[in-house]
Amino acid sequence: MSYRLQFNALLITFLIGISHNVSAQKTGSAFSDIQLQPTIAYLKYHGESRRMIRLIFKNGKNYQQGKISVSFNGLQESLIVQASKDGAESFEIPLPGSPVTKATQATVSILTGGKTYKGSCIVEPSRMWNMYVLPHSHVDIGYTNTQSKVLKLHQDNIDEAIALAEKTQQYPTQARFKWTTEAIWVVDNYLALASQQKKDKFWDAVKKGWINLDGAYGNINTSLTDSRQLMQMFSKSQKLAKEQGIVINTLFQGDVPGASWGLAAQVEQTGIKYFLSGPNASDRIGNLAKWQDKPFYWLSPSGKQKLLFWQCQPYSIGYQLKGDKIPNFFTMEDPKPFYTGHPSKNFLNPYLFDYLDQLAQKGFPYDMSILTWAMSDNAPIDPELPDAVKIWNEKYASPQLIITSTKQFFADFENKYNRQIPSFTGDYTEYWTDGVSSAAKETALSRKLSDQLKQADAIWAIRNRKNYPVKSFEESWKNLLLFNEHTWGAFNSVSHPDDEKVKSEWAVKQSYVLKAKEIVDTLLSQSLTGDSLKDSSSTLKNNQIDVYNTVSWPRTNVVYVPASLSKAGDLVKDVSGIPVLSQRLTTGELAFVAELVPSMGKSTYSIYPGHAYHPGTTRTKSPGSGKASEKKSGVNISDNLLSNGVYSIDISPQTGNIKKLVKIASGRDYVQADSAGLNQYLYMPGDSLEKIQTSSNARIAIKEKGPLVISLQITSSAPGTNGLIREIRLVNGLDQIELINTIDKKAIRSKESVHFAFPFNIPDAKVRYSIPWGTVNAETDQLPYSNRNWYTMQRWADISNDTYGITWSSPDAPLFEIGKITTANLLGGLQHAPLWLSFTPQSSNIYSWVMNNLWHTNFRADQQGVVTFRYFIQAHESGFNSYQANQSGLNNHQPLLVTAASADEKGLPFTINGENIYVEAFKKADDGKGIIIHLVNCGDQDSKLNISPKTNAPLKIWESDISETHKKTLENHFTLPAKGIMTICIEN
């Protein structure tokens, strides 16, 4: 993100000591007084380490020779200040005597121009500091220029860095150049284009420590990823590490404020043990700066894994000190490293002294810290850094500067202080996820594709298909990660949205998800049929279809068969020839309920000529449960009422909102009596809740009449749109409500937000929601100073008290607010914090935040066109159950899939059972020799997992990781810690 948007009080505070009367300096005025400023620094002076104070010339400069007399620690000493035609603003004075062990007064006088000036200050004890400096260029994939230009720059930086590292090998160790590539995206593309000679030179530089690789593919909004995608974020780096025999165990995340707790959960799987965060200095970061320089072990939800986390100074320090004073790389098409000829000018003096002094005053317990050094976003290297460090270390005994890598710094820090580092647990809820709703259609598609990709992987494993297309799956994950990378557009995307470069950058960003769709569609089709779905009807054998269940429990749910697969008729029978309830929908699809489809397996059905079967009773169950029961086959639907035997729903004829939602068995109405109802459309123009608008002119019509599927469709006028259509759908006997909201959005560039409101009637509710690899209790499971204005769910949110509640899924729109709309007035950069919440009161009011354009840079200025947002609601007449919530979420994100029947397959050669343990994802091993399974224990207790072979053939089971390494052998039964995750490999 643009450094030019990051000016704040931080640097101003640190530079007070040298910014005296700028107008006097410009006119060449002589100083009129002096001020002494104590520092934490030690000067090298005549072979000794001397505490340093700074003499500041006030209201002008000193041009004449002068004599300084120093009295300190019972000793006196004299120094000569040389005359200077340019004038001096300050002078650094070494204090005589032994090290300072208590507060001691220093007195100084200077005789110059026939006048004597006097000053004094108190010098406190100070430790000897080491300051690690991490050279990098912040990787925005776009933003400052087109993506291709940006990539070329970062690739050139690698070559420049290798040359500079080689050139400085005769420098003192601490001043030898190192380079951090920041994102594996840079390395991946560099290697793809490099000759073998260049590749060899690159890997030689890596192994020498000249080039340093951190593990993440890019600076990703980690809260937007699902569990598998979050792990995939490190797949490329770990494969490279394995190939080259090196260790990549660090993550450096630049710019992005906050991160998902899931990163700590997957340490054993990814090998990433250290996390350096260099966030933005001021843009929409809330109270995040309060975590600055407070390193801690970030414990996983299970408490069994830990990630050493350090949030350093904002990554823009290098820009603010130097990058802003050299040619503007933003305006250059092909910027090159810039030599000023004065390496020490605009460097760390006096910023570093003041920064470390502030750390000491805050009780910082360590003698080392780290800052990053980048000239700007997507900038060339600073070629003068090694000389600046060398000159600094020759002058100052402390702080000593060390050009470092992320890995070197964390190794040095942990080796020295591992017993002193505190531990914390909780989600560092991200701030910048709000911007993704500026492209709601693409965001929804990205989420859908991630689920479909996992389903394609799963079916490939279930069917034991040969020639597993590793590269195609990797390419899909790469494109989805690039879509969730934090750069969405140009720096002027909001101020100049019609600029050709702005439009071209968005086109490339959008292309990531469109490319992913093209590949995922092919992979899903290949996994299911080997042919495209449009041709698959010709392969039907005896009019049979297969229904696949990609989750780890037997499952009953509705199946929607495309018209192309159901031409034979409307009558559906199971493998025993028993007809099942079915219905031809207005869309042309044939719907039926598939019962108890085996976990991670399939069931086969046949379609016959004739009318759909309409029994008097049908065996049904709640989606995800394993028990079937008799339910009266009966649905009721009228102009504004619908019921499926489980729920009764009453629609307001005036608004189209749900005014009553009753769970029939308990008679409980889940809609707040004094509210406008559930699924209310809210449009907020500008920045104020007072201006909020709702839909109008509701027209309700019956879309699906039953007997299996019933739905009402509400068409409304809605501000900010060309129209709003809301469909409310029930399936006979199924414990689930589906809402399908479709907006035809107008392109509007003035600030706006769109919400759907869900005021549930659940007194004393607590809100929990899913994140990658775990669950967060809103507020209690969040780190202090993390985002509480909105939340980003993976698959579900649960709103419940000790007796009952609602599990609510939002597959397409990840953002929601609790209690009220807390995003009003959150416009632009928001460099000040009053509007940022520090506490989230629990509430059963949930607001789905589906669209906005509140940002001032990077994200889209407007969006238009048809976008659909689906919601699934399931009421439970008991307190919160994590396993059931995850069942509901996975069911809603991974629907049963249907295809033309194939030859009988054996399926997976094993079964998996364990209380509160579910399979997050599974796939064929890349080498084709086994099945990789990602397991989650979502319960509060350790749980035993049993893996049973289906035949007499023995199973080989290993604990594994993202690289699919066989780490250690496992028995057929083992224990998974409470809230823990594990990756295993099973071979038959």
TrEMBL record:
<dbReference type="InterPro" id="IPR000602">
    <property type="entry name" value="Glyco_hydro_38_N"/>
</dbReference>
<feature type="signal peptide">
    <location>
        <begin position="1"/>
        <end position="24"/>
    </location>
</feature>
<feature type="domain" description="Glycoside hydrolase family 38 central">
    <location>
        <begin position="430"/>
        <end position="495"/>
    </location>
</feature>
<dbReference type="Pfam" id="PF17677">
    <property type="entry name" value="Glyco_hydro38C2"/>
</dbReference>
<dbReference type="Pfam" id="PF07748">
    <property type="entry name" value="Glyco_hydro_38C"/>
</dbReference>
<dbReference type="GO" id="GO:0004559">
    <property type="term" value="F:alpha-mannosidase activity"/>
</dbReference>
<dbReference type="GO" id="GO:0009313">
    <property type="term" value="P:oligosaccharide catabolic process"/>
</dbReference>
<dbReference type="GO" id="GO:0006013">
    <property type="term" value="P:mannose metabolic process"/>
</dbReference>
<dbReference type="InterPro" id="IPR011330">
    <property type="entry name" value="Glyco_hydro/deAcase_b/a-brl"/>
</dbReference>
<dbReference type="GO" id="GO:0030246">
    <property type="term" value="F:carbohydrate binding"/>
</dbReference>
<dbReference type="InterPro" id="IPR015341">
    <property type="entry name" value="Glyco_hydro_38_cen"/>
</dbReference>
<dbReference type="InterPro" id="IPR011013">
    <property type="entry name" value="Gal_mutarotase_sf_dom"/>
</dbReference>
<dbReference type="Pfam" id="PF09261">
    <property type="entry name" value="Alpha-mann_mid"/>
</dbReference>
<feature type="domain" description="Glycosyl hydrolase family 38 C-terminal">
    <location>
        <begin position="642"/>
        <end position="807"/>
    </location>
</feature>
<dbReference type="InterPro" id="IPR011682">
    <property type="entry name" value="Glyco_hydro_38_C"/>
</dbReference>
<feature type="domain" description="Glycoside hydrolase family 38 N-terminal">
    <location>
        <begin position="130"/>
        <end position="422"/>
    </location>
</feature>
<dbReference type="InterPro" id="IPR027291">
    <property type="entry name" value="Glyco_hydro_38_N_sf"/>
</dbReference>
<keyword id="KW-0732">Signal</keyword>
<dbReference type="Pfam" id="PF01074">
    <property type="entry name" value="Glyco_hydro_38N"/>
</dbReference>
<keyword id="KW-0378">Hydrolase</keyword>
<feature type="domain" description="Glycosyl hydrolases family 38 C-terminal">
    <location>
        <begin position="916"/>
        <end position="976"/>
    </location>
</feature>
<dbReference type="InterPro" id="IPR041147">
    <property type="entry name" value="GH38_C"/>
</dbReference>
<protein>
    <submittedName>
        <fullName>Glycoside hydrolase</fullName>
    </submittedName>
</protein>
<feature type="region of interest" description="Disordered">
    <location>
        <begin position="614"/>
        <end position="633"/>
    </location>
</feature>
